[in-house]
Amino acid sequence: MIYLDWAASSLPDINLLKQSGNIYSKYYANPSAVHREGQNAFDFLNKCRKNISELLGCKDNEIIFTSGGTESNNIIINSVLKKAVKKYSKPPHVIISGLEHASVYNSAKALSDFGIEVSIVNPLKSGFISPETVRENLKENTILVSVILISNETGAVQPVKEISETVKEYSRNTGRNIRFHTDAVQAFGKIYFKPDELGIDTASFSAHKIGGPRGVGALYIKNGCNINPLYCGGNQEMGIRPGTENLPGIYSFSLVCNDILPLVHDNHQKAKKLMNIITEELTSMDRAEIIPYGRITETEKFSPYILKASFPPVPGEVLVRVLQDRGICISTGSACVSRKKNRQRILFSMGIDETTAYSSVRISTGHSTTEEDIYKFVKILKEELYVLRKVTGK
Amino acid sequence: MRLDCLFLIKYGEIALKGGNRKFFLNRLKSNIKNQLKGIHSKIIIKWGRIYLYVDAQDEKFTDMTLGRVLGIISYSRALRISKNIEEIKKTAVNIARENKGLNFKIEARRQDKTFQYNSYNIACIVGEEVLKNIPRLKVNLYNPDWVINIEIREQTYIYSKEKKGPGGLPAGCSGKGLLLLSGGIDSPVAGYLMARRGLAVNSVYFHTYPYTSEKALEKVKDLHKILSGYLPYSKLFIINFTEVQLEIKKQANPNEITLLSRACMMKIASIIAQNNNFSCLITGESLGQVASQTIESLSFTNSQAGLSVIRPLIGMDKEEIILIAKKIGTFDTSIQPFADCCTIFAPEHPLIRPELGQITESFNSLKIGNKLPDAAENAEIISY
Predict the structure, then answer these.
(1) Are A391 and B246 within 8 A, CB to CB?
(2) What is the 3-state secondary structure (H, E, C) of A281-323?
(3) Closest CB to B210 among A313, A322, A394
């Protein structure tokens, strides 16, 4: 199977994951327990935390372990609720981008049921969020802005640093403290970044996008940033994410980070080469559209790991099925969305038309994808598109 | 294996079947046995009732199954006790303690005329005993919360909490039919309504992978499984329709694709029906619901069928159909978002009022050779 759906979930590093099995027998105690075994487990947990924080270039107490990107995003978005009730006489205002993953988008929308104002800033047709548009939406009651770092649909790397500066400037000028969150799930281990250099207050990460296990992730919270927990329990993870920690999962996460994060630059170069092969082939094909079109000339502004393309009028789902039968896995919309209309929300927010959107597919590579995989993929894609177009007369 | 659990079953329309009643009752008896999937049981048909004995361990399964046996109007868990009035009183009180609601009624029938009390007296004596033991209760003859039924026969049969059965006629007593089953809300309801009239309903589904997903097929299999809960034997014929669909797409005028595809489906279904001695086709079409369901369109697709096409939903509203779908348990499955038709084959402006001669000519000029009989021949068959 040629697996090209890394944006949904990566091929796991089985050897690394197997190592986590040993942790079960060694650090079986609850890290919150007072006895020695518990303390050993607690120390080991913090060793993993320190490791990941060092690789990320932040302080170890700025990393909270969660069950993944969705939970991390929900903690941040929903922390607004408690704040809203306690602190503000006027309902607070939250800004999110129209590119957000469902875990940000839907949880932000749910806030409006509680009387919180939510503004959605849609991207330009180029696929990017404009800092100026974010600035225009900032208000006296804005308390949170969330903009995804790399779009999981198109791979567009958002100008998070510029947007963060815009927000911070507004905060300074108005004496406010507006939080800036970024969903960095598709960026972690894929592009080089340091949270403090981006100027963000919080960021979400997920282990299973880089070869780690599912059900584990992290939330970066800049020192000094107070976040309310999503739910209540013990005092684990500084009270922000209570619940007995998934130590084997966290250990695997740490091991994968050791492997992947130091190689971000090398893997990035390799991914660029693979993506160039794909884009060159697609631009030479009849009725193949790259979304957004501008990525052909602005490759530096896009993650080389994710590509959105459309082959109208062949429905994206049909192409996925046909390719799966030829041993290739790609995807249509986000794997987290099942209903057709919602699946294309992000493309519609970019102004992409229905036919192009419903004919779109997402191709995403990873650190173990090879040139051979890509060449085979392109060959089979061309063959199947030819057949599909011939038999359907389109 | 003690057969110590009794269900008292009432049938409805069968009672009206004069000389044929025995045929219908035997069919119902056979269906009950089949749907109970071979558990240890004994069935006695007598006095206008069916007495089903199973083992106590099978009570829950039997209770669930009887609710899906077509032909049953109602059924109750019953007790068979002696004709001793004291035992009758005691049993009634025990049943009353388990029932919820304050208003009750006793209904008695004395088939054995040698019994010392008549029906009215039985009701009064037992009612009084219940009130004496549970003083908070009240007798309400017109709007009771629950009723205790007492039937004095060779023994006493006492039951409460009558549960509704699906009614209708026993499956299979009206012959066999073939339902064109899609993944939508309507066709499973059409199949159910015909099964309820005694038709042994089998189904056919037209699959167009990869233009539709495997999930769409799984959905149809799930729907057929739900329908099979009402039918002792039922087959699902799965037709690989992709090649035929592609040929229609290639050859036909775009606005005729939908109708010509429906006609081909009718043809294939007719072949299957003829090969399996099914007497009719059934569809879930409802007049005016979509473009292919106008009178003109239905007249055309009918003309390609070659045998009777029954459309039990033809005059029904969507809301009425949805209510039935919810009742029979198919709605939640039907609304799963796995389309059974690809947008590639759906014309932008489908023909709504075809002229019969013209559309028939279009159909006859399709060069599809043996593709229709081949598709029927190569059907995958799933039996439940």
Answers:
(1) yes
(2) HHHCCCCCEEECHHHHCCHHHECCCEEEEECCCCCHHHHHHHH
(3) A322
Task: State the Cα–Cα distance between residues B264 and B371, nearest whole angstrom.
Answer: 10
Tell me phi and psi for residue A173, to 5 degrees.
-65, -25
B254/chain A closest Cα distance in angstroms: 11
- Interface contacts (A, B; CB < 8 Å): 31
Question: How far away is chain B from the Cα of A283, in angstroms, using its nearest Cα?
Answer: 24
ipTM: 0.79
Closest CA to A356 of A153, A197, A72: A153
| Mean pLDDT, each 10-residue run in order, chain B (384 residues) | 91 83 92 91 92 95 95 96 96 94 95 92 96 95 95 95 93 94 95 96 96 93 94 92 94 93 96 96 89 87 93 95 96 89 81 91 93 96 89
CA B10 from centroid of its chain's CA atoms: 17
Inter-chain touch B343–A394, beta carbons under 8 Å: no
Closest C-alpha to A148, from A217, A205, A194? A205
- CB B344 to CB A317 under 8 A? no
> Which chain B residues touch A358 with a CB distance below 8 Å?
343
* 8 Å CB contact of A392 and B344: yes
- Asked if B362 contacts B252 with a C-beta cutoff of 8 angstroms, the reply is yes
Show the beta-strand stretches assigned E in chain A.
2-3, 63-66, 93-97, 117-121, 142-146, 179-183, 202-206, 217-221, 289-291, 306-310, 328-329, 360-364
Q: What phi and psi, each to the nearest 5 degrees, are found at residue A121?
A: -95, 115
Residues of B (189-218) whose Cβ lies below 8 Å from A: 209-211, 213-214
Chain B CB contacts of A391 below 8 Å: 246, 249-250
When scoring A311, A314, A318 by the number of chain B Cβ atoms within 10 A, the one with the most, hence best to mutate, is: A318
CB under 8 Å to A203, separation ≥6 — which residues? A149, A181, A182, A183, A184, A195, A219, A220
Paired strand residues for A206 = A217
Q: Which of residues 243-302 of B touch A (CB under 8 A)?
A: 246, 249-250
Which residue in chain B is spatially nearest to A325 when comparing CA positions? B210
- Averaged pLDDT, A217-244: 93
Give A391 to chain B, closest Cα distance, Å. 6
Report d(CA B222, CA A126) in Å as an integer.
Answer: 44
Report the residue from A338, A339, A393 with minimal CB separation from B249: A393
A318 touches B at CB < 8 Å: yes
- β-partners of residue B381 are B237
CA distance B319 to B286: 12
Taking alpha carbons only, the member of A179, A281, A320 closest to residue B212 is: A320
Let me know if B60 is exposed, middle or buried by CB neighbors in 10 A (0-12, 13-18, 19+).
exposed
Could you list the active site residues of A? 336
Angle of helix B186-195 relative to helix B318-328, nearest 10 degrees?
Answer: 70
Find tokens 């001793």 and name the residue: B84
Which residues are B10's β-sheet partners? Answer: B74
> How many residues does the structure list for chain B?
384
Interval A300-317: pLDDT, tens: 999 999 999 999 889 999
From B339's Cα to the closest Cα of chain A, the distance in A is: 10
**Structure tokens belonging to residue A114:** 């509680």
In whole angstroms, give the CA distance from residue A267 to residue A190.
Answer: 8
User: What pLDDT digit, counting tens, does each position of A359-391 carry?
Assistant: 999 999 999 999 999 999 999 999 999 999 888
Is residue B241 within 8 A of residue B206, CB to CB? The reply is yes
Q: Do A325 and B210 touch (CB under 8 A)?
A: yes
